[in-house]
Amino acid sequence: MLRLMEGHVSLKGSWKQGGLLLVVALLGVALGLGIREFLLPSPKPVPPPPAASEPLIPRAIPIPHGVESHTTAGGLLQEINREYVDVLSRILPSVVNIFTARPVSADAGETVPSTDSDTRNSRRAPTDEETSLGSGVILSPQGHILTNAHLVKNAREIRVQLFDGRRYQAKLLGLDEPADVAVLKVEAKGLVPALWGDSDRLEVGEQVFAVGNPFGLSGSVSRGIVSAKGRNPNLSSSGFENYIQTDAAINPGNSGGALINVEGFLVGINTAIYSRSGGSNGIGFAIPSKLARFAYESLVARGKVVRGFLGVEAQEVDEDMQQAFNLPDTSGALVTRVEPNSPAAKAGIRRGDVIVRYHGMNVRDPAELRLYVSETSASAEIPIIFYRDGRSLTVQAQIMEQPEQGSRTEEGARWQVVRTGELDNAFAGLQIVNLDDSLRAQLGLQPHAAGVYIVDVEEGAPSLDLLQPGDVIEEIRKVGKPSDKIRNIGDLLRIAAGEHGKEPVLFYIRRGGAQTFVLVRP
């Protein structure tokens, strides 16, 4: 019993000891959780996914300044479209359709094939007049309209149709073929003039719109960019091409129409395309507004365009000319002729000088020089910088008004031809004659003009494809040596006989009313 008593007392002590251990364990767990909560940051709440009615808007398209942040991509496009519509709605009433009638010769009609297979039944189209379609731009409330000269030249009658369908007879106030612009006048009310823009501020890549009447479709608009500036696609030696090139569609009937920027300002007059098919190939040309405005204001005020005149003819500088004239680069206008008693002659400019700056502006080529001079007022004193014999010189030239061009007569003649033979130099393979009175008259030369006329250039000659039949050789210049005047065949043969080396020779020639240097390598 005692053992049992001892045994009962021992069991009760073990239960007390186990309970104490359990309490200690629970306290340890609670303490550990408290320490973890204190030391580790609490996780951030996860936001709920966007509602189905609020689609995510991609932000790759930049939002312009002034557009509210809640504008969607679709809303932005609508804003752009609305701007286009507003701009074009303002210019469309300013562009007109031009119809002209010209007298043509009796043999100029088009053949209209008959439905009968017998070709003897073919008939001729009417030949009394030719109707052409083009465009024009209203530039004053008084009814002045600017268009292309080639549309209205020799026109017997000119009619203008406004955007709202009204038609009027138009009067030709004047035209200027070198710039290909003409000014018409209509007596009409409620006209909407276009606003002039500054073509000099145009940048390549800038968006533009061509507005006109292609194929007679009134009020047509096409959009593109400025592809290039300063184009001279006709390579004219006397014109004033300085075209804006654009890929906006320009087709027959667009000529004379408006080229505008995104603000609706007139920056050009559409005038030509580069195409073999007659349709748009994405290469169109427009007269810059600066040049068109100059001609327009002069035609309105005086009935003709009054341009400045320096009195030089010039050619481009290539790498051969750069080397021959000891120039730093190929920019500039190489003077090939100086008009007697002209501003250039009085200022001391000579043939062979290379003009590189005019009135503080760099001269890249002869076309740029012509433009600068043409826009200069008569009597203005202009500083001109040029290279002569490798040295830079500066002169002051007093610009005068451009004189009228005279006409030239033509008549035929026969000559005694001299061949230069098989010379081992740049003079080989030429067939030449002396100038006589008949040749001088045919070429429009002065009675005392000297030189040698080229009848032909033989196959295998070093100058083949460089010199041409009809050229007049007036001077010979070897690189680094003084020039020699060529008065007749004897002068040329004497110089040719003394030339035994393989050095290139500069021929100074007259070609088709222009004068130029040609470098011939043996």
UniProtKB/TrEMBL annotation:
GO molecular function annotation: serine-type endopeptidase activity
EC number(s) recorded for this UniProt protein: 3.4.21.107
Keyword Protease: yes
Region (Disordered): 107-136
Domain PDZ: 299-365, 432-476
Database matches in PANTHER family: PEPTIDASE S12, PROTEASE DO-LIKE 8, CHLOROPLASTIC
Entries under Gene3D superfamilies matching the protein: 2.30.42.10, 2.40.10.120
Protein name: Serine protease Do
Keywords in alphabetical order: Hydrolase, Protease
Stretches with biased composition (Basic and acidic residues): 117-127
Biological process, per Gene Ontology: proteolysis
Keyword Hydrolase: yes
